[in-house]
Design a protein that fits this description.
The chain has strands at about 5-10, 15-25, 30, 40, 45-50. It is an all-beta fold and about 60 residues long.
């Protein structure tokens, strides 16, 4: 499996955070349930990873 880094902004402190994502090889069918639902057939590149943990530097709450 190959991995890649996902970069985004932390909603708690507005800092940058990274999450390591792993590629799932051999994906040829993707279905997402929801409104609207999405179905795709064919080769697809899918990466999965853990949910980010709690922020170690949250902003103070505004009064």
């Amino acid at each position: 499996m190959t991995s890649r880094l996902h970069l985004d902004l932390c909603p708690d402190c507005d800092g940058l955070r990274t999450t390591t994502l792993q590629a799932l090889p051999g994906v040829v069918d993707v279905s997402l349930d929801g409104d609207p639902s999405v179905t795709y057939r064919g080769r697809a590149v899918v990466h999965v990873g853990p949910m980010p943990g709690p922020c170690p530097n949250p902003r103070p709450k505004e009064a």
